[in-house]
Amino acid sequence: MARPGAVVVGGGIAGVMTALELARRGESVTLIDRWEPGHSRASSTDYNRVIRAIHGRDEFYTLWAREARLRWMELQAEIGQRLYYECGALILATQGHCHWEDATAETFDKLGVPYYRFSAAETAARFPQFDTTSIAYSLYEPEAGMIMAHRGVRAGLELFQRAGGRVERGHVTTDADERLVLNGKPLDADLIVVATGPWMADMYPRTVKPITAVVGVNVLYTSTPDGDASFDQENMPCWIDHGEKSFGLPSTEGSGVKAAVVIPDKIDLDNDERLIRRETLARTRSYIRKRFPGLVGQKVVDSKFNQIILTPDTHFIVDWHPKHDNVLLAGGCSGHLYKHGPVFGDFVAGVGRREYGTADRFKIAGRRKLSPAESPSGR
Ligand SMILES: Cc1cc2nc3c(=O)[nH]c(=O)nc-3n(C[C@H](O)[C@H](O)[C@H](O)COP(=O)(O)OP(=O)(O)OC[C@H]3O[C@@H](n4cnc5c(N)ncnc54)[C@H](O)[C@@H]3O)c2cc1C
């Protein structure tokens, strides 16, 4: 059998978008995943993910997010399904936690990204769902919103298959030399892109594990009041509330409000039951009491327990394996990769075909922790 042109391992948003872009560049591509792409354990498959250009002082991701918004609109038109809701995004700058928000406003001014700056009183008048008592000010980015995440993965997969791509089920492992193995045999191709998300750390104990941490995150969906549409995406934006270590998305297509209090948790990717944690329930209720008085007494109607893989500087990984020069590692989500998916896939495809080199920030070597003010994610 001829050696295949390109193999992409991993069918989350990073792998699917890379596979699609490689196929569109004329490559013969096989995408392999352990489970059916879109499965519940993957990081990419909650109902929805926020898309916003808000990235502190980081111009690179701000521009990528602006481009990704257009790409998602194109994909949505192409697939004929709703993938993007432009409900806007609000960052709440809490007293004493404004560095990242101040830096975001400067970046937006410089790059011409549309936004509004509201005082606490103006925020409450514009978005009465929020109690703004502890807020210094807010930034509202109107050309932001949410991507329907599970549907986005499935749409990308469908477009990939329409472009001639093949999808196979299989568990790719690595040997002691971090060489790829499938069904007991070396996995070989001109190009192999490994986009296995949080699983990449255990697959690459020498190359990826030392620069990453895998963190479980449990998020809950809360019901909206009977007969009241004010918490739906038509009337409420996504939000980021760094001072409260929270973010969230309004109710969409009946999902309930996703008010996520981030409590970093341990997770066993393959063996944990994906159930609600008691602590998250208590902390989410207390957050809702503080920020959303109109949701007090509402019930948890759904939940998601999945994970992020964090790099020290929260930059993604797009780099060649140091010993295997046909293996390109692509991921390092750091809690913000989903929205960039179409641009990320396009970039990885170009690096994989050696049309250009990777960006310095995506290299495996030389990672260091950034201060919250420097960080693209404010972490
Ligand atoms: C709670 C939460 C909220 C988030 N919010 C946002 C947000 O608002 N906006 C945003 O942009 N991002 C957000 N993110 C981050 C975003 O979801 C991730 O960065 C992104 O989904 C990562 O995609 P991925 O393709 O790298 O990984 P995954 O989606 O996990 O995909 C990896 C795939 O690889 C497969 N795989 C793994 N190992 C193997 C193997 N050995 N062989 C074969 N296949 C394998 C898996 O089965 C899986 O399908 C959030 C993440 C979390 C957890």
TrEMBL record:
Residue ranges of every copy of the FAD dependent oxidoreductase domain listed in the record: 7-349
Keyword list, A-Z: FAD, Flavoprotein, Oxidoreductase
One Pfam short name: DAO
Highest taxon listed in the record's lineage: Bacteria
Cofactor: FAD
Any one Gene Ontology molecular-function term assigned to this protein's record: flavin adenine dinucleotide binding
Matches recorded under InterPro entries: FAD-dep_OxRdtase, FAD/NAD-bd_sf, MTOX
Keyword Flavoprotein: yes
Protein name: FAD-dependent oxidoreductase
Organism the protein comes from: Microbaculum marinisediminis
